[in-house]
Amino acid sequence: MHADITLVVNGREHRLSVDTRASLLDVLREDLGLTGSKKGCDHGQCGACTILIGGRRANGCLALAVAHDGADIVTVEGLARDGRLSPVQEAFIEQDAFQCGYCTPGQLCSATGMLDEAGQGWPSTVTGDLGSEPVLDDDEIRERMSGNLCRCGAYVGIVAALREASRRKEAAEA
After folding, report:
1. Range of 150's domain?
2. 51 and 93: one domain?
3. Can you give the pLDDT at residue 173?
4. What's the pLDDT at 39?
5. Is the pLDDT of residue 172 over 90?
6. Which intervals hold domain 2Fe-2S ferredoxin-type (predicted)?
7. Which pLDDT tens digit goes with each residue over 29-88?
8. In terms of domains, do 95 and 167 share one?
9. 152 shares a domain with 101
10. Which of 47, 77, 152, 174 places its Cα 20 to 30 Å from the Cα of 24?
11. Residues 31 and 67 in one domain
């Protein structure tokens, strides 16, 4: 069975007829040709497929496309703006926060969402003071990014990149 849906992906509207069983990840990759988001485990456990739906992090492999009719979706291809890398992408490059690169698109989308969540004051399980904006120290970053796995073990670089991106975001907002 197919259903007609509309998705706004990286700022562009797409009208599609999709199998009602298709995941958002498969629609992005197979129907729209956006292959940055990767299919790792296909069970929502590795984070390689992380995208932003309405600004919030989500595993594309677990999201049914038909359930997101009208949704605003950002993939790794949409993080850069006007030919400039996002601050998170720049920090990943500067801190050498990747090795093979397979998990990097999901890490970048997750990190972008995580920084927004922290900026809105959302606590994690390791946030000390629930009455103030979370401080993105290494423990906080690791906890918030725990849903994104890296088989190469580039975690030291990823944490350093997110620490740097967080500093830049704070400086830009000040």
Report:
1. 87-173
2. no
3. 78
4. 96
5. no
6. 3-79
7. 999 999 999 999 999 999 999 999 999 999 999 999 999 999 999 999 999 999 999 999
8. yes
9. yes
10. 152
11. yes
Distance between CA atoms of 7 and 94, rounded to whole angstroms?
Answer: 33
pLDDT of 14 reads: 98
SS3 annotation, 59-125: ECCCCEHHHHCCCEEECHHHCCECCECCHHHHHHHHCCCCCCCCCHHHHHHHHHHHHHHHHCCCCCC
25 and 93 belong to one structural domain: no
Both 93 and 38 in one domain: the answer is no
- When pLDDT is averaged across residues 97-107 and rounded to a whole number, the result is 95
* Shared-domain flag, residues 65 and 122: no
Task: Tell me the Cα Rg of the chain.
Answer: 16
> What is the sign of the dihedral through the CA atoms of 19, 46, 166 and 108?
negative
Q: How far apart are CA 135 and CA 114, in angstroms?
A: 12
**Distance, CA of 97 to chain centre:** 15
Q: Which one of 78, 110, 145 terminates a domain? A: 78
- On whether the CB atoms of residues 21 and 64 are closer than 8 A, the answer is yes
Asked whether the beta carbons of 124 and 95 are under 8 A apart, the reply is no
- The answer to whether the CB of 66 falls within 8 A of the CB of 1 is no
pLDDT digits (tens, 9 = 90+) for 128-143: 877 777 889 999 999 9
The length of the chain, given as a count of residues = 174
Quick check: 26 and 16 in contact, CB under 8 A? no
